[in-house]
Prior knowledge:
- There is one protein chain.
- The strands form 7 sheets. The chain has an 8-stranded parallel beta barrel, surrounded by 7 helices. It has a 7-stranded mixed beta sheet with strand order 6-5-12-13-14-11-15, with helices on both faces.
- It folds into 3 domains: 1-69 and 93-152 and 251-330, FAD/NAD(P)-binding domain, CATH 3.50.50; 158-247, D-Amino Acid Oxidase, Chain A, domain 2 (2-Layer Sandwich); 392-743, Aldolase class I (TIM Barrel).
- It is α/β, with parallel strands linked by helices.
- Helix 2 (48-57) packs parallel to helix 10, helix 13 (355-361) packs across helix 14 (363-381) and helix 22 packs across helix 23.
- The protein is built from 26 helices and 30 strands.
Amino acid sequence: MKIVSVGGGPAGLYFAIVMKQADPGHDIVVYERNRLEDTFGFGVVFSDATGGNLATADPVTFREMERHSVSWDDIDIHYGGEVITSTGHGFSGMSRGTLLKILAERCRDLGVDLRFEAEVTDLAQLGDVDLILAADGSNSGIRSQYQAAFRPRVEFRPNRFVWLGTTRPFPAFTFYFKANAHGLWRVHAYQYEEGHSTFIVETSEDTWRASGLGETDEDATVAYCERLFADELGGHRLLKNKSLWRRFPNISNGAWHHQNIVLMGDAAHTAHFSVGSGTKLAMEDGIALADALAAAPDIPTALAEYEAARRPPVESLQRAAQVSLEWFENAERYMTLDPTQFAFNLLTRSLRVSHDNLKLRDPAFIARVDRWLADSAARQSGEPAPTNPPPPLFTPLRLRDLLLANRIVVSPMCQYYSDDGMPNDWHLVHLGSRAIGGAGLVMTEMTDVSADARISPGCAGIYREEHADAWRRIAEFVHGHSDAAIGMQLGHAGRKGSTKVAWEGMDVPLDSGNWPLVAPSPLAWHDGNQVPREMTRADMDGVRDDFVRAAHLADRAEMDLLELHIAHGYLLASFVSPLTNRRTDEYGGSLENRMRFPLEVFDAVRAVWPSAKPMSVRISAVDWAPGGTTPEQAVAVARLLQAHGCDIVDVSAGQTVSDASPVYGRQFQTPFSDRIRLEVGIPTMSVGNISSYEDANGILAAGRADLVVMARAHLWNPYWTRHAAQALGHELPWPEPYAVLNQYTPRER
């Protein structure tokens, strides 16, 4: 096979090594426009897991890399006058220049034709070749030439950063956070060879501009940073090597291959340096492509199978890197955290490292985190501090006079099993079993404030006296047989109403028996759905009074907490989003105007809801659609709610319009909760693809939320909280009829 790599970085060189090792008969040429010595930056980092992959792919190269590497287990975080150290992480660093020399020498030994200072400007000059690797970096000329096929997406992030070196040999991966008159500066530093370290300085665009530094004046950058970090450098100097101020490019592509051309490394994808090493990704691309070519019957099949297999892990790492880079972009937000919580928040920022994972790596550090959180929870709740700190999810939380025994919430989940709004034995078992299952708070499904407020004929309601009596039966069971509290979510479907129950057709209008719909603007949820009537002032008064009546009935039903549903495109949320509110009166236009009616309802309900009982509000932090509500606006919404007496914000996202494009992933809505909690200073609940006790512990210990809300996990396992306690070694006694389980050890097989 005749193969040409355009680009002589880690992607092209390592692929050539693996392919030649597999079959010396391959004719491989690598073109690189620069000299081998003209590399950018200083060091590269590999995790121990990555090292294992490289050792398997080519032991010879890996042994030589090891000979020139330095290794460490610790991460040092300098913050708030303290140095917090976490161990057990397993990294190695090496000089990027040395790595390229090792790869180039190995290529020559295997018979790869290396042509440095040879630029390929037109693929036609390559002649007849079987495979072309576009390994020409983030500014890939090949990707640009064939952009119609590759469909690249390049987004330059707002922060500025510069790669510097230093003669100080840092003994650990080191983070500094230091403020001066211009703003906050972040440093990512690590040793890459004896006596030399990488020293990446990062800051916001505003801080960088205030400093007066230019993009290309390397000497001024070195002088400024040496003055700023004189104490941290301890007399050592900073070094420059193409040390220009850059903005990180997030690169992805709609396709990675076209005809016989395949993108690799930074030409195909990037991942922020705070999580993913571009070098790691590039070299693993080489392994994956070589494996695909060896297994497939022809090149087109190999490229398709390579992309299908390689894209998911790359995109998973990119998602984690995106969360991590956003953490550093918004580091100012975290500067008020206690040092212990700050360190944990930083270490778990990508959401790929969990509380349990850190406990395996560094039990002493997690013991410190758990002790700090238990003491903080004791102060907040007024409860005694425990002698032995529990796992974070089993710490208490107080909201007004309501004391929650733990931080786990059963999410409101529509059951569609009511008749004219009436809850029944299904609801008793559904909520009662999960209360016995150990959750600190169980929430009713969205409970509608009138018959016309229902989503479907099967939706639960609280608009008649009989409803309150039925709900009180359920609340009395929860209170009498568990330590759980019970909350009711009040809602009005608005334009999403008068549809079939979920299993007969989600959001599909009823075949008959439809009721009239109201909304802030006459916009149907979807083609084929009923067009709602634009609400008049009289309509608003009627809906507000329905919520007030429902609040009275909820109190009579002995509910402990009340939540207003101002999310997911239902009536009150439709006022908030500019996509669903096109009004030109005082209830439309600015965010303050769009929030006017939801706040009127909140105020009216808060006025009749007992002052000792808390109120929460569920919001959609982002609409996932152009022109919709943004996370910045969600912060403003939370501030308004806080000013009106809201005790905790339940932070969800999306479902506002039918053509939204949500960005799913593990804990994908948690960053919105994190932001609102810290920027507004209001307690939050986090929801969205949270399923494990590791997730819950991490969210709570990092301060990303005060309560963790789970839906499907509780449908699958009503006893989720008790099983989490058993797995974590935390004593959570069973109710007396089940007391025998206190001496039971479950086994999977």
